[in-house]
Amino acid sequence: MPDSKSPRFIQTWLADVEAERVAARNALLATPASVAPKFFYDRLGSHLFEAITELPEYYPTRTEATIFARHGTDMAKAIGAGMALIDLGAGNCAKAARLFPLLEPRRYLAVDISVEFLREALRELQRDHPHVHIAGLGQDFSTKLDIAADLLGDDRPVFFYPGSSIGNFTPDEALGFLRRVRERASGGGLVIGVDLVKPRAVLEAAYDDALGVTAAFNLNALRHLDAAIGSDFESRQWRHVAFYDEAASRIEMHLEARQALVVRWPGGERRFAAGERIHTENSYKYTVEGFASLLRDAGFRNPQAWTDANDWFAVFRAAA
Ligand code: AVI
């Protein structure tokens, strides 16, 4: 019987703050300039993202939830009970927790950049599920997956990556990421949420909502960057731009200078012409066939997809 009172917490990743500053300044000096999407997610940005998921235009979160609600039992059958469930980007662990009664994991490992995000949610989850071995791992899993064997025991590893964050990688990065997951999922598998290709109007509204929440989310990256590198961006001088590039099958988000301006930081500056843009995010959209073939290329077997009634979103399960 596991110790039911206290989840384990392990932090294996420490930000190299100076290297990150140098990379962020170099990205601002490049042509075109860019800001890494990680700058969306400071405290305010995380709240703004949560607000985005409530917007009528932002269909992914809601649609994925309907797929789990409607097809969860079939998914659980396909996956088989008694696994070690590894939740990538677990956050408040709510999505995985909702599936506990169906999946009946023997172990649950929540992975996020910082274990601090996980503490409260995991303690609560442990209280509700005293028989599950629960642990939190602080790791930047986007670049490296390093999971000590004793965290998984002898249980089949099933990775869980909901939310369509795979779309924020380029297809090449997504393939590399899926290969790394595949190597560690031997004998188990993967459950992953994927946003699908759909009419341009639906996509563009989801990333440029009427209330301007996504615009605030995008602009907030500049405030976060100011705090990180000491730059002097003024949000009012920038405009949110989001559009669907059909050829690349991706939403692009940018910030566009409303006027000619200069941004300064200790030891550097960048001049922007009126209308010049900073690229902040890509969000790739897949077809069911396209993502199934990416999974196969990564070494997964028998990919199976469940979609909603509009075919706007898919949850895949694949064996490793
Ligand atoms: C986190 N990720 C899946 C979101 C997406 O839809 O690509 C991030 C986001 N960007 C703007 N709105 C939401």
Question: Can you walk me through this structure?
Answer:
- This protein is α/β, with parallel strands linked by helices and 320 residues long.
- The protein is 35% helix and 26% strand.
- It has nine helices and 14 strands.
- The chain has helices at residues 17-29, 43-52, 59-79, 94-103, 119-128, 171-184, 200-206, 213-229, 288-297; strands spanning 8-11, 33-34, 84-88, 107-112, 133-138, 157-161, 189-195, 238-245, 250-257, 261-265, 268-272, 277-284, 301-307, 313-319.
- The strands form three sheets. Strands 1-5-4-3-6-7-14-13 form an eight-stranded mixed sheet, with helices on both faces. A four-stranded mixed sheet has the order 2-12-9-8. A two-stranded antiparallel sheet has the order 10-11.
- A hairpin with a 4-residue loop joins β8 (238-245) and β9.
- The two termini are 28 Å apart.
- Residues 52, 60, 163-165, 167-168, 207, 214, 281, 283 line the site of N,N-dimethyl-L-histidine.
List strands and helices in order, with pairings.
Blueprint: E1 8-11, H1 17-29, E2 33-34, H2 43-52, H3 59-79, E3 84-88, H4 94-103, E4 107-112, H5 119-128, E5 133-138, E6 157-161, H6 171-184, E7 189-195, H7 200-206, H8 213-229, E8 238-245, E9 250-257, E10 261-265, E11 268-272, E12 277-284, H9 288-297, E13 301-307, E14 313-319
Parallel strand pairs: 1-5, 2-12, 3-4, 3-6, 4-5, 6-7
Antiparallel strand pairs: 7-14, 8-9, 9-12, 10-11, 13-14
